[in-house]
């Protein structure tokens, strides 16, 4: 069904109850993977530096998940060690009037990463086959047509050098409940709560079903979906970091080419240095 | 092969020599169609106004053709009578470094028309399967893959309310020659000439062949290609105008809905008027 990182097999039926949101693959606690996490972060930064100097490829990380699944948190933790000059993060909110006047991929396409860059999408064009479908703004038929458009769009990106990686942060309904209560009880967390989140929670079942559709229909070998158990934040961050590093390792990024012709410029510079 | 407006039948092999660039369909001169042209212009403006108030659909006119085929001219003549608030024109030049760092549809997607708008593209994303192919920057295989991406992209636009109409301005090699000489002989036309146009002219045969590929592979019922004989400017403008009007007629644009509830606001206003 998936490898140890939760990568889905394209075309296979997906049932989210097959994944335990609390799963940590027998890792007992954060401390056990602390050293490896540090190493992964360092490696991720090295690889990003190569990507940035090479300027031939790009990577788009799409993060989806229910409210409270930790999309903000995972972006903060996993991408924080990178050179921010080469990273862009886009949070997709309710579309503006201008955005709504265009096709549903318009706003996302404009912020896809150029060669050399990593982009992280906090929510994405997938909302247009999820929240709109849950609320009946988009019929089942239209949702499936739009998933096809998404696949073509991602294939365009892939063919033009943008690696696409999609990550579903998988939490339990109980976990969300605890988070919502926490956000209301603790004054300093109040800002995180949008009262409408409590309304969306009532559609949990439908969201789950439509997510399963999305995961089944849009997972491809080149633009894979990963299901990441996310009830434990440390395991979530660790897993996403491993996915990120593995993705960039597989891109076979090359070191910048040496330019032997530069050598001939050295004598002049040496001469100036020797004068002092 | 095509109807009287030059619309191509999807999937049919295209041979441009089957069209006479000098064709005027037995119309003798500009005067003969002057009255009809004026009426068409008026109707086009009416339809645009409906499109603009309705704000449900949009139209994208793509203009392609060899150098000197009159892309600028046709846009100036056919679109000049419209409300400019609802029209955008984009000329696609050599891509910038920023544009080149993204997929080839990125720059075009960002300037597609929103609901209510008409956009005219002077050259377009089709250059990415023409000029780049002529100069070997894109292989035959890549060109055909990119034509597929274009078809998917246009289908996305169509599904999201943007009608796509593609117009090939068909001129003879002799006509181009006369235009080039004219642009060099007449000082006030010098600004129109890019010396590289003389180089591109040498690839006439290859351009013709690759245009034929494009026309055959990307003409669809919903996003048709029209071949417009363009050695006679007046016939070219007249034909494009007819295509434009027919396109908007077929969109079944509706008049803005009356809002009966507004009637209740009148008594107050009448009262104020009566006071004077």
TrEMBL record, chains A, B:
Annotated organism of origin: Paenibacillus kribbensis
Lineage: Bacteria, Bacillati, Bacillota, Bacilli, Bacillales
Keyword Kinase in annotation: yes
Single GO biological process annotation from the record: polyphosphate metabolic process
Superkingdom in the source lineage: Bacteria
Protein name per UniProt: Polyphosphate kinase
PANTHER family in alphabetical order: POLYPHOSPHATE:AMP PHOSPHOTRANSFERASE, POLYPHOSPHATE:AMP PHOSPHOTRANSFERASE-RELATED
InterPro entries for this protein: P-loop_NTPase, Polyphosphate_phosphotransfera, PPK2-rel_1, PPK2-related
Bias (Basic and acidic residues): 15-25
Domain Polyphosphate kinase-2-related: 29-253
Region feature Disordered, mapped onto this chain: 1-25
